[in-house]
């Protein structure tokens, strides 16, 4: 299927993008932030309350944003990690995704502003993700959450971080996680070319060289770190005992096949997994939930998955 016509029209009117490798880091972050905060949220993704605060983290204060759904709690609790290749993004850039998960999943959402590479390379981000999970399991009850109904969610790099935290929780007898939402997170270092990485090597939105550059910023010792399950969850010794997972992929995305291979490996390990590919969509499409039907679909699906797995 070709790229969704609405996305194609958007891209046709956009100036040429030189690729992340050719943009100074401060400019890249500003560009991503400016373009992201200009995207409208879904008007019907209504939440009751949004509050910013900080919690203790491995590297100091860790900013979080807490979204409370409408209704009467206690609510299920979802720890959310934003995407951005481990290099860009913050609490604002994927605010629209967190709001949709909160409203449509009927869950308290704790969005985490984890440390970014290259200033804070691996394993800073997964350490922050796990610290946020531990904090949520201990303190979310004070926010109106029910910590017996705990999930993790993320898009792109955030999906990888969510899955890494779930593995660590399993292996270290940590908090019991009842659901994982991974939206186009490949959960692996790009070890080998795939059909999607070759077909969409030049994008749109995300190129294979962009993928390579993000990993170059994230890993300081790729030869050893790329096989660490905290960087590549697909390489865990076993995926048995992983929480039920929803894995969403975009058809026109170089990382599509890696994400789907991770989902298939989960299924092979006996994990309950729902995998869905969204036709005509590109990497990052969930952020356009305010106007793109495909984005609305993926976040509606994710919210429904959370509601079902986190029901009393």
Q: What is the overall silhouette?
A: globular
| SSE ordering | HHEEEHEHEHEHHHEHEH
The end-to-end span amounts to 40 Å
Count the helices. How many?
Answer: 10
CATH class: Alpha Beta
Radius of gyration: 18 Å
CATH homologous superfamily title: Alpha/Beta hydrolase fold, catalytic domain
Q: Give the helix/strand class.
A: alpha/beta
CATH architecture: 3-Layer(aba) Sandwich
The whole-number mean of residue pLDDT values reads 97
* Largest sheet, spatial ordering of strands: 1-2-4-3-5-6-7-8
Largest sheet report? 8 strands, mixed
pLDDT < 50 stretches: none
Overall tally of structural domains: 1
Descriptors:
Rossmann fold; about 35% helix; about 300 residues; alpha/beta
Q: How would you explain this protein's 3D organization?
A:
With 312 residues, the chain is α/β, with parallel strands linked by helices. The protein has one domain: 3-Layer(aba) Sandwich (Rossmann fold). The chain is built from 10 helices and 8 strands. The chain has an 8-stranded mixed sheet with strand order 1-2-4-3-5-6-7-8, with helices on both faces. The longest helix is centred in the C-terminal third of the chain and has 17 residues. It is globular and about 45 Å long.
In short:
The protein is of the alpha/beta class and 312 residues long. It has helices spanning 5-12, 25-37, 95-105, 124-139, 157-171, 195-199, 208-218, 222-225, 256-268, 293-309, and strands at 47-57, 60-69, 75-81, 108-112, 145-155, 179-183, 245-252, 273-282. The chain starts with a helix and ends with a helix.
